[in-house]
Specification:
Blueprint: E1 4-9, H1 13-21, E2 35-39, E3 51-56, E4 68-70, E5 72-76, E6 82-86, E7 91-96, H2 97-106, E8 112-116, E9 118-123, E10 129-134, E11 140-150, E12 163-174, E13 184-189, E14 199-208, E15 211-220, H3 226-239, E16 246-258, E17 270-272, H4 288-303, H5 316-331, H6 336-346, H7 349-356, H8 362-369, H9 374-406
Parallel strand pairs: 1-2, 1-11, 2-8, 5-13, 11-17
Antiparallel strand pairs: 3-7, 4-7, 5-6, 9-10, 10-11, 12-15, 12-16, 13-14, 14-15
Helix pairs in contact: 1-2, 1-4, 5-9
């Protein structure tokens, strides 16, 4: 018999969400699931605090922990034209990882063990998997579980035809006088200088009239150095008219934006979760909503006695559309600033957010497509379709040649 029913590797958004989803879940015999939340011991492998942003209708399961929420959003074009709209039926929300972490641990219950272990190996098996690692003192240790969910980035990372990075650095700032509207957030400010391919933008999430998260973000092939981000943030604060700000904290990160296929199943008993399992939406880099759908499906499967394969929480047509958009940005066929400004200028923000979160209908998506650069996107769609056809044909041709030589 395995030590645990479920072992969850990693205490980020995916690991904490699944731990929370499994609270109070019983197996088909009515017995509470025994869960291990496996994380590195405190030290250099401990991830820094961060914020998670997402949108959903009001009344969500994490509303009691929100650091801030905004019902009104704006996008600023490169020429300074501002497009503002209610986010309805959505609310844009911010969670702090430290708040989620503390809440999930406090409410985990007696059937969840928090295991400090730097995982070095996960070995699949017929009736259980083995997780091996090092404890804080360096001693080797192991545990077994009927099912293992690994939220760590896969090595090597899947590579698709297009592989961009959403890379960013943000400052939590405080101003000496009122400078922000706490009821409205700037989702994209496209006035910063633009890279040749991809897009650069600022991002302002007010926390109070004198406090906000101000972020500089790029979609591109390479991340910047910290010094380059700092220079970009100083310049962006200048654009905002924030000449005198106190930086109280900072966060920095890189999120993959790729048409690569992330496979949630890594073995008979081992699965990938979160970004590693395809929860990140390629066109936006947003992950939290996908994680919630993915972990809810896993919890249902475990309660019903099914094999708990985490679903990729995005429709195939949306992934295909995302692949076209990423390719168009990467090739320079569309200018990122013009693409995003035009999309939000010509459509209700709620409709755009519905599409970006996977809740839109095909008819509305097609209408939205005509508000983007139609010629460039059509050319890229044909290019992507031809590439897909060639890559599907190539394996068959290789097999055919091998069989011919073998006769």
């Amino acid at each position: 018999m395995a030590d645990y029913d479920v072992a969850i590797i990693g205490g980020g958004a995916a690991g904490l969400s699944l731990t929370h989803q499994l609270r109070g879940v019983n197996d088909r015999r009515g017995r509470p699931l025994r869960v291990a939340l496996v994380e590195p011991p405190p030290g250099p492998h401990t991830p820094p605090p961060r914020t998670w942003c997402f949108w959903e209708p009001d009344g969500g399961p994490w509303d009691g922990l929100l650091a801030a929420r905004w019902e009104h959003l704006s996008v600023v074009a490169a020429d300074g034209a501002e497009h503002s709209s209610p986010a309805s039926p959505y609310v844009y929300k911010m969670l702090r990882s430290a708040d989620v972490d503390a809440y999930v641990r406090a409410s985990a219950g007696e059937h969840v063990d928090q295991v400090p272990l730097l995982v070095t190996e996960v070995r699949d098996g017929a009736d259980h998997a083995v997780v091996r690692g090092r404890e804080s003192g360096g001693a080797e240790s192991a545990l077994t579980a009927a099912w293992v969910f690994d939220s760590r980035p896969p090595r090597p990372a899947p590579r698709g035809r297009t592989h961009l990075l959403q890379h960013f650095r943000g400052w939590f700032v405080r101003t000496p006088s009122d400078a922000f509207d706490p009821d409205a957030a700037v989702l994209m400010d496209l006035r910063p200088p633009q890279p040749p391919n991809g897009v650069a933008f600022g991002y302002v999430l007010p926390l109070s009239p004198r406090e906000a998260l101000v972020e500089y973000t790029e979609f591109g092939r390479e991340a910047l150095t910290t010094a380059e981000y700092e220079r970009a943030l100083r310049d962006y604060c200048g654009l905002l008219g924030l000449a005198d700000v106190e930086v109280t904290a900072a966060e920095q990160g890189v999120i993959p934006m790729t048409d690569a296929r992330f496979r949630p199943r890594a073995g008979r008993r081992v699965f990938r979760l979160g970004t590693a399992g395809g929860a990140t939406r390629p066109s936006t880099g947003y992950t939290f909503s996908g994680v919630r759908r993915q972990t809810a499906a896993v919890a249902r499967a475990l309660a019903e006695g099914r094999v708990p394969v985490p679903p990729v929480p995005h429709r195939r047509r949306h992934l295909a559309m995302d692949a076209v958009m990423l390719r168009a940005l990467d090739t320079g066929r569309v200018r990122g600033a013009e693409f995003f400004a035009g999309l939000f200028a010509a459509n209700r923000f709620g409709d755009v957010l519905a599409f970006l979160d996977g809740g839109s209908r095909l008819r509305r998506e097609l209408a939205m497509g005509f508000t983007t650069p139609v010629a460039a996107m059509s050319l890229t769609s044909l290019d992507q379709a031809w590439y897909s056809l060639r890559t599907r044909r190539a394996p068959r041709e290789r097999v055919s040649r091998t069989r011919t030589r073998g006769r």
